[in-house]
Amino acid sequence: MTARPLRIGVIGSGDAAPAEAGLAHAVGAALARAGAIVVCGGMGGVMRAAADGAASEGGTVVGILPGGDPGAAADAVTIPIPTGMGEARNVVVARASEAVVAIAGEWGTLSEAAFCRKFGVPVIGLACSLPDSVIDETADDAAGAAARALELAAARREVSE
Question: For the stretch 120-158, what's the b/e string if a residue is b when 16 or more beta carbons lie within 10 angstroms of its beta carbon?
Answer without folding.
Answer: ebbbbbbbbebeeebbbebbeebebbbbbbbebbeebee
